[in-house]
């Protein structure tokens, strides 16, 4: 199998007609006999290229609205026959089956129909049957047959034919057989996942995940780990769908942190005003609203100037020049925003290592979807945390009720706490975080760390007292004891938001009353491990 195998006869059946005519012309010029179906055959014929309809080969017309056209021995025999097996060759001769050396197929646009929200019946009609069957047959017989399933591989096919006098090498056919099986696997995964959702099957017996290669990465979290980036095909706005305008290649950690930053800033609708989130190691070190993006960035930066160095900045509105100038005052790894004006991009162009990513929109944090994580020997799968708490969902449990201004800060702190590694404590004042405690084994420790950070920032900024004085504080889960709550009160917090649900809620509420705190409960927690 070291010698190239000549391509003499090809079957082309594609839904996506991109590049079809150029490919057909190139094959025709090499003397390759072309077989095709339906719309593909018409397009090739209309371009003045000779093509034979598959129906003329099989002796059966396309029927049942095109559901049956290639499911025939004269097609599958031509794909599956072993050319070096005398019995196979004899069967081909006896039944008039011609060998097919090249299969070019792309499947019905099931994923596109899903993306546009097609109804159940339309989704069913977009499930391809003949295409996957032919692909699997051709790929299995890659000793003799070349299989191409992606438009972007047409040029590679032509280059291979040019390099091998109209043939393909075994290594080429092996590589493209693997691509073919990955394509049918991803297609079946999309169908099965959609159907599980459509029929309300929350825990199907088998759950399949697939991804499309985006880029290789120099390494993973650490230099000894290999890594690559894949898209899930959902089109959800974010790092996978973003356009990179400048800067060196994103690393594994950059992508992970940028995703965290963008998902957090997407909690704040642009119509409610500019917002900025600064992320370091997947945790926010500053989040703020402002009258402008520049002010939002400055307020977020002032929460923890030390940690912001080398961080990720996410904005909820298009980047402007004034904000770009501020961001470039310190080293920043990545900035992601739903757009950037020319002046801002010109400013960033002077910082060659700074990556700028733009997205078509913010992510919808209310979207349904699945989140999954690998564990030894398995996978944890859960619904995306799209839980939402509004003003009307809050229950005041203390003698003192929060003011309207405090309520705004409480809800702001709650949104941020959702994106902080648990145990999470977040202090907020005037629409900006002023202390963040993340990822501690004790909620008390998180409260202490957040308060200590605020003290250090007050000293660095020459403030008479930490900004936690008069702040709102959020806890991602209930206070199991009153100690964490009292630590927040000692730091100057005046109001608290927490889920409630502890066996000691009454004790915690009593402590809040004694400290003169206003406290509301959400009935919902936001663990983030």
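^ Assign residues to that structure.
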């Amino acid at each position: 199998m070291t010698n190239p195998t000549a391509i003499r006869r090809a079957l082309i059946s594609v839904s996506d007609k991109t590049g079809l005519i150029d490919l057909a012309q190139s094959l025709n010029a090499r003397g390759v006999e072309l077989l095709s179906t339906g719309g593909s055959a018409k397009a090739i014929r209309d371009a003045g290229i000779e093509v034979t309809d598959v129906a003329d080969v099989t002796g059966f017309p396309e029927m049942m609205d095109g559901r049956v056209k290639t499911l025939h021995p004269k097609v599958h025999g031509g794909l599956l026959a072993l050319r070096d097996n005398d019995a196979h060759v004899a069967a081909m001769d006896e039944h008039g089956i011609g060998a097919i050396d090249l299969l070019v197929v792309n499947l019905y646009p099931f994923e596109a129909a899903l993306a546009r929200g097609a109804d159940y019946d339309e989704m069913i009609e977009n499930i391809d049957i003949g295409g996957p069957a032919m692909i699997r047959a051709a790929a299995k017989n890659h000793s003799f047959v070349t299989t191409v399933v992606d438009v972007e591989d047409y040029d590679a096919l032509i280059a291979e034919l040019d390099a091998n006098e109209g043939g393909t090498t075994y290594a080429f056919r092996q590589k493209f057989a693997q691509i073919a099986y990955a394509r049918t696997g991803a297609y079946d995964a999309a169908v099965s996942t959609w159907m599980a959702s459509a029929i309300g099957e929350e825990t199907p017996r088998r759950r399949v995940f697939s991804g499309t290669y985006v880029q290789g990465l120099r390494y993973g979290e650490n230099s000894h780990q290999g890594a690559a980036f894949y898209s899930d095909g959902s089109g959800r706005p974010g790092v996978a769908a973003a356009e990179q305008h400048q800067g060196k290649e994103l690393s594994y950690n950059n992508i992970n942190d940028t995703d965290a930053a963008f998902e957090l800033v997407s909690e704040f609708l642009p119509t409610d005003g500019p917002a900025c989130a600064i992320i370091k190691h997947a945790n926010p070190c500053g989040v703020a609203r402002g009258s402008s993006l520049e002010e939002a960035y400055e307020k977020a930066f002032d929460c923890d100037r030390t940690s912001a160095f080398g961080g990720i900045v996410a904005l909820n509105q298009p980047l402007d020049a004034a904000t770009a100038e501020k961001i470039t005052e310190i080293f920043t790894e990545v900035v992601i925003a739903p757009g950037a004006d020319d002046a801002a991009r010109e400013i960033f162009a002077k910082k060659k290592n700074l990556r700028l990513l733009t997205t078509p929109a913010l992510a919808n944090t209310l979207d349904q979807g699945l989140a999954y994580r690998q564990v030894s020997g398995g996978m944890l799968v859960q619904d995306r945390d799209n839980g939402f708490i509004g003003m009307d969902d809050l229950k005041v449990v203390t003698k003192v009720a929060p003011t309207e201004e405090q309520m705004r800060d409480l809800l702001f702190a709650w949104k941020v706490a959702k994106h902080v590694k648990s145990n999470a404590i977040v202090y907020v004042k005037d629409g900006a975080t002023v202390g963040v405690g993340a990822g501690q084994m004790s909620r008390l420790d998180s409260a202490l760390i957040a308060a200590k950070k605020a003290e250090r920032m007050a000293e660095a900024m020459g403030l008479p007292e930490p900004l936690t004085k008069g702040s709102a504080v959020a806890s991602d889960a209930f206070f199991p004891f009153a100690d964490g709550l009292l630590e927040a009160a000692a730091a100057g917090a005046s109001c608290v938001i927490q889920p409630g649900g502890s066996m000691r809620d009454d004790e915690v509420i009593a402590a809040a009353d004694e400290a003169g705190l206003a406290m509301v409960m959400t009935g919902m927690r936001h663990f983030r491990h």
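The CA atoms of residues 290 and 296 lie 4 Å apart.
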